[in-house]
Write a structure and sequence with these properties.
By secondary structure, the chain is mainly alpha-helical. 42% of the residues lie in helices and 8% in strands. Strand 3 and strand 4 form a beta hairpin.
Length: 105
DNA sequence: CTAATGACATTTG
DNA sequence: ACAAATGCCATTA
């Protein structure tokens, strides 16, 4: 099975420190390929758990992307975390962007 | 099983 | 810089 494990997605997402965000692409890369970005988003959308800070996951472009509960909700939380958002885009994206260790396998 | 859709990413115009 | 088109994976109808 070349499928990615939702568990892994949750694990990585949970590892995101407060005040930081990550992108689907990073997660996908860690999972095995940048192309998994879509799959990751889908998994989160279908299984998004409250224990997982899915609101800390945004697009590679710095855009918030989307949120099941409502994009505004996500933005509000992120702003509270210390992340500044303008017009649905994250400011200082490079500063708040958290990267995982691609190793491993 | 096939077709369509989606919380993305990248390239080109 | 923005818009449109293309590629990829997983899930649902």
């Amino acid at each position: 099975m070349t499928k990615i494990d939702p568990k892994k997605v949750y694990m990585l997402t949970k590892k995101i420190p407060r005040g930081k965000v990550t992108t689907y692409g990073e997660i996908a890369k860690v999972l095995g390929g940048i192309k998994y970005s879509r799959a990751v988003g889908k998994i989160l959308n279908k299984n998004f758990d409250r224990h997982v800070p899915c609101h800390r996951v945004v697009c590679f472009n710095g855009k918030v992307g989307g949120f099941r509960k409502g994009i505004q909700r996500k933005i509000k939380i992120l702003k509270k975390e210390g992340i500044k958002i303008r017009n649905g885009k994250v400011l200082n994206f490079d500063k708040v962007l958290f990267k995982f260790s691609k190793k491993v396998k």
